[in-house]
């Protein structure tokens, strides 16, 4: 036995013992529980249920009487969210969680509460937390290590605050650019979402999420949520099972394998079946096929909505029965104890079997045990000294640098000289919210006055980084012109215009729009700036790709900065001045027109008969201040057998004058199959650092999983035949033998 096998064997044994121990503990605990105690564990309420009125908040927002009602009387297993929908200090959080767990000790079995929070791009609801670039940016980095780092720092800052459970990562796929949660995804590609999601889970959970600095993740929103037909949040998705399995399932499948112990359910519906009533998805696929053993938690009020909104249940009772029997283990009720009252009755009346309750509660107890809550449910105060420390901020800045896409750079306008006189204008120039988006300080992320004022906006960062004169004119708000004339006047005495356009922060339904084209007032400002004849750098800070084609085509440079996080303005400035060589690539297709939403992995049918796919910027597009050349594509074999796998080698060289990082993307096309296949699909990528003149040979390993697809019978299959591998403009083919 080699040393490695021995280590693996010992690790597996240790994991088994761990699982066995928790399974035994669960059994013992479950055996002692009453029906009410069990149903309490399945109930999750929001902070409002235990809150003092905001006007009476004296630094401790909990109403102790309400807290006792929730935990002692209703024995709720979980609480979520933040007081008064805004971030609280670390100190307040420590007090809240301590009070919650103190009260849980007053219950008969002293089972701790698992406190859940949306720590989406960092600790959203703890003041001063490290807030990373949003997922759409992270996807653009093509560097999953950043996801791992973000996961690790987020878990640590959450545990310092006292929360245990993070409703993250978002594993939805962003293929509907209108969707107000587009920026919460890693983009349109399955492989990018999967690799980043898994890396995030690894960082957040570490080798054992019972350890102080790690915490359990929650994959969401299972599944198909990301493709609302009309683009508005929580509206119907229509997708057949093939597409569901091909595009929307793999990221969850990989996350289950990576050990995420909880999942949140899709708030919308697919083909008329609401996510929370979908037995096929929640039980047959999730449990049967994916072998998921953890907790399925509902999304916000979604069990109630089976009755109140979707009308698939004809009473609140039927809604609870439907969701629980479909496979939901915990209800994010969240405003009251209706779920508890109803479910207790349903079990007593024999409408929901005790076995189903035991199953759900076992899963909940197991996650609580494996999170270390039973051993110590209190905030991890020893982590406070690491909260948002210099290292975390430096890692956040380093991440932001890799997530900003240089989409256009005519005549090498960028990088700008530091002594250039710059006019900065536009609604996203002087706000922190546009760097961060939703789930920042508040749910919508748009309360600018609550942001940490010491952080820099684009204007402030440019002023700090420039040696020339930086003039600012607002020009327009997001939707209404302010002083476009003044901007035109000031432009006359500047060398270059940095035109900052885009979107305010938003999230979920309030972020719905009717039209993807950027607001007219902003286009007017852009046109006025372009007319001055001064070079224009268009900077887009936005959560989805607003259509900007006419102004982008006239601008000399275009930077798609999206939501680069709290250090994003510094990173952007470094890129504009050439202190950092941009290396991000778009993780989505930037539409040219409002009727041109085609993803890069389109079907041959979409380019048949002279039809063209012509996004403004393609998936994977991103410029640099240097040039790279890929050459020497080699496949290990021209013919392979099933199970054998294939090695793809390619060289990449920095042929320019500046050091930089280049992401090399490997695509595959299945030349003929039972069902039509995309013209190409991303299967692998690597990002490497290269000095000028340096070249590296990269090796990519493709396996049967990469050659597989969802066949006619809705099952994943691998078929013999010819495949083409593509890297940049290079391609080569191989045959998978029968
Ligand atoms: C969102 C979820 C979130 C939950 C709890 C819902 O509205 O869809 O993503 O985790 O609220 O805040």
Note down, in words, how this protein is organized.
Helix content is 32%, strand content 17%. It is of the alpha/beta class. The longest helix is centred in the first third of the chain and has 30 residues, at 3-32. 55% of the residues are buried. The model is unreliable at 10-17 (pLDDT under 50). The protein folds into three domains: 18-386, Alpha-Beta Barrel (TIM Barrel), CATH 3.20.20; 404-605, Glycoside hydrolase family 3 C-terminal domain (Rossmann fold, 3-Layer(aba) Sandwich); 628-736, Sandwich (Immunoglobulin-like). The chain binds beta-D-glucopyranose.
Enter the CATH topology name of the largest domain.
TIM Barrel
Quantity of strands, as a count? 26
The domain tally reads 3
Strand content: 15-25%
CATH class of the largest domain: Alpha Beta
Within CATH, the superfamily of the largest domain carries the name: Glycoside hydrolase, family 3, N-terminal domain
Bound compounds, each kind once, are: beta-D-glucopyranose
SSE layout:
Blueprint: H1 3-32, H2 35-41, E1 43-46, H3 64-73, E2 78-80, H4 90-104, E3 114-117, H5 135-141, H6 144-161, E4 165-166, H7 190-205, E5 218-222, H8 241-248, H9 250-257, E6 262-265, E7 269-270, E8 273-274, H10 279-289, E9 295-297, H11 304-308, H12 316-326, E10 331-332, H13 338-348, H14 354-370, H15 390-401, E11 405-409, E12 422-425, H16 433-436, H17 458-465, E13 470-473, H18 484-491, E14 496-502, H19 520-531, E15 536-541, H20 549-554, E16 557-560, H21 568-576, E17 628-635, E18 639-640, E19 646-654, E20 660-670, E21 681-690, E22 695-702, H22 704-707, E23 709-710, E24 716-717, E25 721-727, E26 730-736
Parallel strand pairs: 1-2, 1-10, 2-3, 3-4, 5-6, 6-9, 12-13, 12-14, 14-15, 15-16, 18-26
Antiparallel strand pairs: 7-8, 11-16, 17-19, 19-22, 20-21, 20-25, 23-24, 25-26
The structure holds beta-D-glucopyranose.
């Amino acid at each position: 036995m080699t040393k490695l096998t021995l280590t693996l064997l010992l690790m597996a044994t240790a994991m088994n013992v761990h699982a066995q121990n928790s399974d035994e503990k669960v059994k013992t605990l479950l055996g002692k529980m009453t029906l009410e105690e069990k149903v309490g564990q399945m109930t999750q309420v929001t902070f409002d249920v235990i809150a003092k009125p905001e006007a009476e908040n004296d630094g401790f927002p909990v109403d102790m009487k309400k807290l006792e009602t929730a935990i002692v009387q209703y024995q709720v297993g979980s609480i979520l969210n933040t007081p008064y929908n805004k971030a609280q200090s670390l100190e307040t959080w420590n007090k809240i969680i301590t009070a919650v767990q103190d009260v849980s000790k007053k219950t008969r079995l002293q089972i701790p509460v698992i406190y859940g929070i949306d720590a989406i791009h960092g600790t959203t609801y703890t003041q001063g937390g490290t807030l990373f670039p949003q997922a759409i940016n992270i996807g653009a980095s093509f560097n999953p290590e950043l996801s791992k780092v973000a996961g690790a720092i987020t878990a640590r800052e959450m545990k310092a605050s006292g929360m245990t459970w993070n409703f993250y990562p978002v594993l939805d796929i962003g293929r509907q650019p209108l969707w107000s949660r587009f920026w919460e995804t890693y983009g349109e590609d399955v492989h990018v979402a999967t690799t980043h999601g898994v890396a995030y889970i690894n960082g957040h959970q570490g080798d054992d999420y019972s350890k102080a600095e790690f915490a359990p993740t929650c994959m969401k929103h299972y599944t198909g949520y990301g493709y609302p037909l009309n683009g508005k949040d929580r509206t119907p998705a229509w997708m057949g099972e093939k597409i569901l399995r091909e595009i929307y399932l793999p990221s969850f499948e990989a996350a289950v394998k990576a050990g995420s112990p909880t999942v949140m359910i899709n708030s919308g519906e697919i083909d008329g079946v609401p996510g929370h009533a979908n037995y096929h998805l929640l039980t047959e696929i999730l449990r049967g096929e994916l072998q998921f053993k953890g907790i399925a938690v509902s999304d916000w009020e979604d069990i109630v909505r089976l009755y109140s909104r979707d009308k698939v249940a004809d009473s609140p009772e039927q809604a609870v029965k439907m969701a629980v029997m479909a496979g939901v283990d915990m209800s994010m009720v969240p405003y009251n104890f209706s779920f508890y009252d109803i479910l207790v009755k349903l079990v007593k009346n024999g409408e929901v079997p005790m076995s189903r309750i035991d199953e759900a509660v076992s899963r909940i107890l197991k996650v609580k045990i494996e999170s270390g809550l039973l051993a110590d449910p209190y905030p991890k105060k020893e982590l406070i000294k690491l909260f948002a420390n210099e290292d975390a901020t430096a890692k956040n800045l380093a991440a932001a640098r890799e997530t900003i896409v240089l989409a256009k750079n005519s005549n090498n306008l960028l990088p700008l000289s530091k002594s250039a006189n710059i006019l900065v204008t536009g609604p996203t120039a002087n706000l922190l919210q546009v760097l961060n988006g939703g789930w920042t300080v508040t749910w919508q992320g748009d309360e600018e006055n609550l942001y940490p004022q010491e952080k820099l906006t684009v204007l402030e960062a440019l002023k700090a980084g420039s040696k020339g004169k930086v003039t600012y004119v607002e020009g327009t708000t997001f939707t209404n012109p302010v002083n476009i004339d003044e901007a035109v006047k000031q432009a006359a005495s500047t060398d270059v215009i940095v035109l900052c356009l885009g979107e305010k922060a938003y999230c979920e339904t309030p972020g719905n729009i009717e039209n993807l084209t950027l607001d007219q007032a902003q286009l007017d400002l852009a046109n006025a700036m372009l007319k001055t004849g001064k070079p224009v750098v268009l900077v887009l800070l936005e959560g989805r790709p607003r259509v900007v084609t006419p102004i982008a085509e006239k601008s000399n440079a275009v930077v798609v900065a999206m939501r680069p996080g709290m250090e994003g303005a510094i990173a952007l400035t470094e890129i504009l001045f050439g202190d950092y060589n941009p290396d991000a690539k778009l993780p989505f297709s930037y539409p040219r027109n409002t009727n041109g939403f085609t993803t890069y992995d389109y079907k041959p049918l979409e380019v048949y008969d002279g039809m063209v796919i012509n996004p403004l910027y393609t998936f994977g597009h991103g410029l640099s201040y240097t040039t790279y050349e890929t050459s020497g594509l080699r496949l290990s074999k021209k013919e392979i057998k099933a199970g054998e796998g294939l090695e793809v080698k390619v060289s990449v060289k920095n042929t320019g004058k500046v050091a930089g990082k280049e992401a090399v993307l490997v695509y595959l096309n299945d030349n003929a199959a039972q069902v039509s296949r995309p013209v190409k699909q991303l299967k692998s990528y690597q990002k490497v650092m290269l000095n000028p003149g340096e070249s590296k040979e990269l090796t990519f390993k493709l396996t049967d999983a990469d050659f597989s697809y969802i066949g006619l019978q809705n099952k994943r299959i691998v078929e013999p035949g010819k495949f083409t591998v593509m890297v940049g403009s290079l391609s080569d083919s191989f045959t998978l033998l029968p």
